[in-house]
Amino acid sequence: MTTFIRALLGATAISLAVSPALAEKLTIATVNNGDMIRMQKLTDDFAAKNPDIELEWVTLEENVLRQRVTTDIATKGGQYDVMTIGTYEAPIWAKQGWLVALDDLGADYDVDDLLPAIRGGLTVDGKLYAAPFYGESSMVMYRKDLMEKAGLTMPDAPTWDFIKEAAAAMTDKGNEVYGICLRGKAGWGENMAFLSAMANSYGARWFDMDWKPQFDSEAWKATLTDYLDLMNNYGPPGASSNGFNENLALFQTGKCGMWIDATVAASFVTNPNDSQVAEHVGFALAPDKGLGKRGNWLWAWNLAIPAGSQKTEAAKKFIAWATSKEYLELVASKEGWANVPPGTRTSLYENENYLEAAPFAKMTLDSINAADPQKPTVDEVPYVGVQFVAIPEFQGIGTAVGQQFSAALAGTVSAEQALQSAQQTTERTMRRAGYIK
Amino acid sequence: MARRATGTRKLVVTALAWAVGLAIFFPILWTILTSFKTEAEAIASPPSLFAFRWTLENYVEVNSRSDYFLHFMNSVVISLGSTLLGLLIAIPAAWSMAFVPAKRTKDILMWMLSTKMLPPVGVLVPIYLMFRDFGLLDTRIGLIVVLTLINLPIIVWMLFTYFKEIPGEILEAARMDGASLWDEVVYVLTPMAVPGIASTLLLNIILAWNEAFWTLNLTAAKAAPLTAFIASYSSPEGLFYAKLSAASTLAIAPILILGWFSQKQLVRGLTFGAVK
User: Fold this and answer.
1) Chain A residues lying within 8 Å of B66, measured CB to CB
2) Architecture of domain B66-232
């Protein structure tokens, strides 16, 4: 019996020594997009460099992910060691003390190489709280062939008046070609992302310096009226239910003359495997109204560590790996420069190989640089964020206002009614939340 | 003449039944067809029903990206576990309500059902906190408990309806013959209520299999069932319909097959007591 117990103890000791008992398991929550999936496939490189860290992935659709990580971080559930969060959550959660500051990601991380516009949105009180994995803005994608046929030339930095003129000239409803495709589906990250950015260029803003909603301003009226005018006259039918994917499908099948949306779409519409119009696509900056602001947004998916995580050091190692310059080179060596996650590092846009492989690179960089989350509007505002307002109440009011504007596009309410309802809803919420008396 | 009229009527009713059946089944058929298309064909307009290049690439991609077997096993354990645990509690509860009703039994039944009227998100945070404190987050046991609780009212109600159909005299006779309470429930009541229990079991397995609020919110990597597997293939920016369809087809296939083989019991159970 003693021999048996000894043997058992010996076997246990050996198994403990052999098994990676010290391996820490990091649970990482990510969104389902091409760049994130590519990262999961490349984790062998991280594992080789960090044999003591094991990675476990939880991939989810954006809205499900947002709900789940918000619940977890607010209740300190501790289910995740690394979370993928947007530029909307980063400043709010950092102020709440929910995130670990990322001010020591290693000597060779080169934090100054991060694009200033993106870095600014993730910094609170001078400290970086989330590391950008990929960044995007919005821009005009257009059909060069249709533009030529219409006898027009797209400038690099068009105005909204030109966009309207071009949309009218390119529309050929008989052949199912619509001059312009824009988001119409209700949601703070759907139609309101586009409309808030458009409103910025019209001189409109969500709130004045006293947090009073501004939907009763002339600038918002002009924004919504011009948007409805564009879409009703030159847009596709049923546009009030179109989001990114629906417009992508329309553009790729040759049904849109112009599409103003996320810069990330550039790689889809120029990919001949999926797009029927791949060789005809041109790019331009988002339009303006001559007031000094363009109608483009700024967004990034970032990696952050929830406060109270027991595995902070391992999580930092992972974040430093995934958002480093070396990671970009790793992707380039395995999948080509065109597939490198864009919009985070200045050095990428100085890399000749990348500029050659991605014809839309310069326009992406110019668009990102043209957006300033700290000063998003013509007039001064008390908030941070270009196409959103970085306050916790925004998800609710953004979606409620989005529903009004989507209804206006569907024709069930007028522009005036939609703006009036938007004003009332926002005022009520802001009063309840204590921003206004 | 009358016979011909009956024949025509039968034909019309049959055609109508097929049309309704196909209309109900169409979304599932469309999902299955889309899973064999390329991403570009999945969004093509006008869409093609059968004339496309059939491919298995989505299934290959889905299997290489996710651990289907892990999610499948989680779904099996969670749905079976919660249903069996639910039956274990509900059979005695339904017995007492059906055969030894008290003054407030009807009210209790209504109250049980009223718990289903609360939107689940209303109790998400309290339940999340309890799960965190008891170490139940991302565990199969935690999900079995929560799914048992949310399906328990339905199980009790269904069993109560079946038990009410069984004459109390039979149980009385068993008691006269010296059967204990345990013997009465196990050897007399349960065998007589087998069709009802079977359909309750099947319906609850389906409900638990398809539950997509708690299973998504209370799990991360270890206990995530097939609902989380499907949710990982949806994306607001990028083409995903074909891969999402492949994941959905893989997720619904087992329950579809189970439903197909047990449709007789399901229909019988659901219509039990409908016509008196």
Assistant:
1) 59
2) Orthogonal Bundle (1.10)
